[in-house]
Amino acid sequence: MMDEIEARVREMIRASDIPAEVAAALQDSLRYSIRIHTALVSDDDLELGATKIGGQPDLQPDGPWPAWQSAPLNFLAQIRLADIAAHDPDGELPHEGMLSYFFDYTNWGKPERESEGSLATVLYVPEGVTLQRMMWPETLRLRERYAPLAVTSFTRELTVPDFEGPIVEKGGYTWDAIYGDNAIPEARETAEHIQAILNRINKYLRGAYGSHGSVHRLLGHADEIQFAIEYDWQGLAQTINMPEPVLPAFSAVQEADWRLLLQVDSDENGMTWGDVGRIYFGLPRQALATRDFSQTIAELQCT
What we know:
- This protein has nine helices and 14 strands.
- The two termini are 38 Å apart.
- The chain has one domain (4-301): Roll (Hypothetical protein YwqG fold).
- It is an alpha+beta fold.
């Protein structure tokens, strides 16, 4: 059922005089996210398997800590999927078990690292599996042992695509249409108008949801800092030397096929990504539909 906020956004798109094909694409691309609101706590305050960002992961006792070339990855978050079921009526994610997210922040930005495999490891832990709180590996740097953030609430929030992303680009109205060397005046005017509409919608959504502070979210569209994150994911997928049969699956993925799995913002628990950036976990929509989290890719953007 459409709520008042979604109805208002759809009306803003309908009332605009942007090209019909772009307006239709924007209507079709509206996506709901699950915003995660948090507060700083101690791991001792959290039960095993509780949803949290940072802290020490709760994993199967016989499972190893994810690593790359024997170096431990950074634990970013775990999501107890029953917690988000009420906010995911379309069932985009499983509603039982747990997802645990790791990222190789230590080696982020090193070309030789990103060509060797995804920076992300996402583990799915089935419902009912025995869990154990894992101690940080001795080789994990102290500044990468993040304090835990407990979830104070979830909210379901509507999101819209980035102006520079593949959805708008398909219509030919991109950043280059405004500032490119070969920009056509008519295309520039239209592109500027599309950008203005999206800016107004985003301003409206920020006011409607009272958005402030760190923005952690599941699903929906990402809050990009530099440019559309789909291009980062697509570029990484094309350069990663992944084993069969993963590589053929990536070869069929287009920019518009990528879906946000989790966005982790810089926060007060010691997570400062680059120059106060965000980390974005994404995977192809086909993989999300089949619950194949092994195809997850992650990238970081900062100012």
